[in-house]
TrEMBL record:
Protein name in the entry: glycogenin glucosyltransferase
SUPFAM superfamilies reported for this sequence: Nucleotide-diphospho-sugar transferases (SSF53448)
Reaction it catalyzes: L-tyrosyl-[glycogenin] + UDP-alpha-D-glucose = alpha-D-glucosyl-L-tyrosyl-[glycogenin] + UDP + H(+); [1,4-alpha-D-glucosyl](n)-L-tyrosyl-[glycogenin] + UDP-alpha-D-glucose = [1,4-alpha-D-glucosyl](n+1)-L-tyrosyl-[glycogenin] + UDP + H(+)
Organism whose genome encodes this protein: Malurus cyaneus samueli
Gene Ontology process terms (BP): glycogen biosynthetic process
Functional pathway: Glycan biosynthesis; glycogen biosynthesis
């Protein structure tokens, strides 16, 4: 029997229309896996009215908040990610005091199964970061909304800033005892699996990766930066969006949800309102209805650069067929 829990929520943040595409897919993935918790998305004033109405069809709450920006260009430059300053806005999630407990998830995460068990964990629970495991990754964490905690975070940010210029550096400094105080607050890595990491421990990925519960599309290249073919239902790699072999199945899952559940909502709104804002938002994603014909020169260059389509035309069975045909 399904019981709704109304005083707990999954929370995400979208600071513009493009990141709303990720939030919509995340929200729909939680719906698809029958979460019993509320879904809340924090948005900034930059999000258009058309996209807000689409968000309302997926999320229980769409809450506008003012932008918080670290404006820390020096530390942000170290990561070559100047856009991450606005992630300080994530701190606003501690103001959702009508909930007793929440799980925050970045808009570039994707749920692969029901993860309601995350609410059994306490504040501040998070998974280790793949780049520096003694730090947690702030893309998924369990917290208890509190205005006292919120004000302490703001005070800490004003006095100490963030060692990376974004929310992750700030939160790791604020919850500085996470690495050593209580292993019971260390979420398994499978709750925040980096899709784009070039795993050096491939046997572990092959053994444990199939049990991943949440995938996180870390880095500057997001799922919506890839091209997707609606006819073949395949993600296409090109020169503008590179990724590791490991994340191709996850990208396919993201785009399958987008094309099946989110794109129809955007198209319906566009037809009803003839909204230029929505039309722009839809067109920003690279969707092709017909397969593009490969150019021989481009295909040769990709092979020479080591960028083969292992999941598609360059799969071993296809290469073997060509060799067999040539030999016989």
């Amino acid at each position: 029997m399904f019981f709704a829990v109304t005083d707990q929520a999954f929370v995400t943040l979208a600071t513009d229309d493009v990141y709303c595409q990720g939030a919509l897919v995340l929200g729909q993935s939680l719906r698809n896996h029958r979460t019993s918790r509320k879904l809340t998305v924090l948005i900034t004033p930059e999000v258009s009215s058309g996209i807000r109405s689409v968000l309302s069809s997926v999320f229980d709450e769409v809450i506008e908040v003012d932008v918080l920006d670290s404006a820390d260009s020096v530390h942000l430059a170290l990561m070559q990610r100047p856009e991450l300053g606005v992630t300080f806005t994530k701190l606003r999630c501690w103001t959702l005091t009508h909930y007793s407990k929440c799980v925050f998830m970045d808009a570039d995460t994707l749920v692969l199964c029901n993860v309601d068990e995350l609410f059994d964990w306490e504040e501040f629970s998070a998974a280790p970061d793949s780049g520096w495991p003694d730090c947690f990754n702030s893309g998924v964490f369990v917290f208890r909304p509190s205005l006292d905690t919120y004000n302490l975070l703001l005070q800490f940010a004003a006095e100490h800033g963030s060692f990376d210029g974004g929310d992750q550096g700030l939160l790791n400094s604020f919850f500085s005892n996470w690495a050593r105080a209580d292993i019971g607050k260390h979420l398994p890595f499978l709750y925040n699996l980096s899709s784009s990491s070039l795993y050096t421990y491939v046997p572990a990925f092959n053994h444990f990766g199939r049990d991943a519960k949440v995938v996180h599309f870390l880095g500057a290249t997001k799922p919506w930066n890839y091209k997707y073919n609606l006819q073949t239902k395949r993600v296409m790699q090109d020169d503008t969006a590179s990724g590791s072999f490991h994340q191709l199945p996850f990208l396919g899952l993201w785009w399958n949800i987008y094309s099946a559940s989110i794109l129809p909502l955007l198209e319906k709104l566009q037809k009803m309102e003839d909204s230029d804002e929505v039309a722009c938002s839809v067109s920003e994603l690279s969707i092709q209805s017909k397969p593009a014909k490969p150019i021989p020169e481009d295909e040769r260059r990709k092979w020479e650069e080591g960028r083969m389509d292992y999941m598609g035309k360059d799969a071993f069975e296809h290469i073997k067929k060509k060799l067999d045909a040539f030999l016989h």
